[in-house]
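FW: tagging you since you asked about this chain on Friday. Here's the raw sequence from the shared folder, copied in full. Didn't touch anything.
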Amino acid sequence: MKPAATRLLGGANDLALGLGSLAAALMMVHVSLDVIGKALLRMPIPGTLEFVSTYYMVACIFLPMGWVQWRRQHIAVELMQGSLPPRIERAMQAFADTCMLVFALLLCAASFGEALEQTAVRETSEAVALRIEVWPSRWFPVVGSALVACALLLQMGAALASRRVEGQAAPGGHA
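HL: got it, structure written out here
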């Protein structure tokens, strides 16, 4: 049975991926209807650009980030993968994970501050015929980067724990 933190984070990442996927589907429908409305009826949907750029695209980019990290599917350059001793490869992975963790935490902190400010003033975007509240989309980067950081922490902890077990299991070896 998986630990509760692993199940919880896996479920949160699956939910975030689902919401990001839903945003992509809604964006396709919204833009298609806008194009059809412009071409056939000469009536575009007001606010399409604002919805696409402030909600759909931001959700598509940031919400699935934790899921991608959870499955270690980020783009990686593996020039020497398999040609180095396992100890060196683990050290390189630990370094890469640490750099990514620092980046995720910095992104989370910066976007958290921005999200708080924009929530306080209830940020809006003025479309031609309407005002759209866009402050909720400021929280998507916070959620995405926090999920990346949590995934990395669990992955790094698991790597350390498995290394300790490997070190203990080695007969006469040193950890």
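FW: Residues 4-169 form one domain.
HL: agreed, and Residues 167-175 have pLDDT under 50 and may be disordered.
FW: great, closing this out.
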